[in-house]
Amino acid sequence: MRPGSVLARFSLVGAAALAAAGLAAGPALAADTPVDFSCQATPPIGGAQTFSLDAGVNGTAPATVAAGSAFTVTLAPDALTVPTSVSGYTVSNISGIKLSVPVPSGATLTGESLSGGSGAGSGASVAVQGGNVVVTVPGPVSGGATFTLPTLTLDLTAGASGGSVTTAIAGSGYSDPGLTFNASVSVSFFKVNVPTACYAPSSPALTTTAVD
Questions:
Q1: Model confidence, pTM
Q2: What is the rounded CA–CA span in Å between residue 62 and residue 2?
Q3: Cα 65 from chain centroid?
Q4: Which residues contact 201 (CB under 8 A, 6 or more apart)?
């Protein structure tokens, strides 16, 4: 098997693995927001491969809050299904999934937590890193398995009146991604581990809360 053949097909493997992914006080607004990712897979041999990934995030937040008041925002992922094979190549698993959300401006972050999720094993964690809230799911998740990333809850305190608090996916490029993961693909008698970095060029707002 020529390395070039494997690398040329990896973009299909990465896209299929996460094509269904999503991240998804007062009256709440809930909406499934499309997030169009641009992704770059970097195999150990050969050049980087790029592909598009259509995802969606379900965000829930209050429409309005009073200045100085506490409120929460939740970002709930949709289910993901890892393919068993693509173009005759076996997808062993995906692992090391990380999704980053910037700490919202216009409010103070007082806490972050995860809930729910299934099929991805134990060990999911959340932490603030470099101005982002980063959700990490170690996996691995086997080919053919369906899993759901945990829901991210942000505890916030509203800032000054007249402002707004918006959430979005982090990232401005492949070197500053908002979504990363590794894919392990079996080829003949060995496996190829391919790190992948994604960002959303349009970076749509997932939730917006006005501060009265």
A1: 0.81
A2: 54
A3: 27
A4: 36, 38
User: 167, 207 in Cβ contact below 8 A?
Assistant: yes
Are the C-beta atoms of residues 157 and 108 closer than 8 Å to each other? yes
Burial (0-12, 13-18, 19+ Cβ within 10 Å), 210: middle
The tokens describing 13, both together, are 């493997």
Q: pLDDT for 171-201, tens place per residue? A: 999 999 999 988 887 767 778 887 889 999 9
Could you give the CA distance from residue 119 to residue 81 in angstroms, rounded to a whole number? Answer: 10
Q: Which two tokens stand for residue 58?
A: 């379900």
Tell me the C-alpha distance between 191 and 163, whole Å: 51
- Among 96, 181, 182, 82, residue whose Cα is nearest residue 137: 96
Q: Tell me which residue of 147, 165, 146, 157 sits closest to 29, measured CA to CA.
A: 165
